[in-house]
Amino acid sequence: MEVTYDANALIINGERHLIFSGSVHYPRSTVEMWPDIIQKAKDGGLNAIESYLVQEAGLYAILRIGPYVYAEWNYGGFPLWLHNIPGIELRTDNSIYKNEMQIFTTKIVDMVKEENLFA
User: Fold this and answer.
1) Which reaction does this enzyme catalyse, per its entry (predicted)?
2) Do 77 and 71 form a contact (C-beta atoms < 8 A)?
3) Three-state secondary structure call for residue 16
4) Coil, strand or helix: which one is 22?
5) How much of the chain exceeds pLDDT 70, in percent?
6) Which segment, 50-54, 62-66, 79-83, 102-106, is predicted with the most confidence on average?
7) CA distance 64 to 42
8) Which of 73, 77, 99 is nearest to 86 (CA)?
9) Which parts of the chain fold into alpha helices (H)?
10) N or C: more exposed end of the chain, with fewer CB within 10 A?
């Protein structure tokens, strides 16, 4: 798969695409429910989902790696270990926070690259 873009759209394998995305929050359902939920999202017109198992349904995936992922979860979606770092101030221009998020984000991106999951 080749993905590029211009000022108007994403270009996937030479064709312009608008991404219609929705989120599927896996903690709110059981594993057995996921394929049906994903299929219903596809049937409803989505072509991307911010979650898991979407390739099997022929959808694009949007990887949400943070640092602020899911506000409804405890600690506002931030990794809990951030709380234990001396001098950190979340949601600010704090250099400690930005450095830790750079390390965390780079780790996730490298893991996805290793698994060859990027288009």
Assistant:
1) Hydrolysis of terminal non-reducing beta-D-galactose residues in beta-D-galactosides
2) yes
3) strand
4) strand
5) 87
6) 102-106
7) 19
8) 99
9) 34-43, 95-114
10) N
Please give the pLDDT value at position 16.
95
Matching residue, tokens 């798969």: 1
Does residue 112 sit in helix, strand or coil? helix
The residue that leads in pLDDT, 70 or 7, is: 7
Cis link prior to 67 (omega < 30° from 0)?
yes
Torsion angle of alpha carbons 101, 83, 79, 66, nearest 10°? Answer: -40
Domain ranges, ordered by start, for the chain? 1-62, 66-119
Q: Which of 70, 73, 43, 71 is nearest to 59 (CA)?
A: 43
Q: Is pLDDT of 65 > 80?
A: no
Q: Can you tell me the mean pLDDT for 45-54?
A: 82
In the 8-state DSSP scheme, what is residue 111? H
Helix or strand run (H / E) with residue 61: strand 60-61
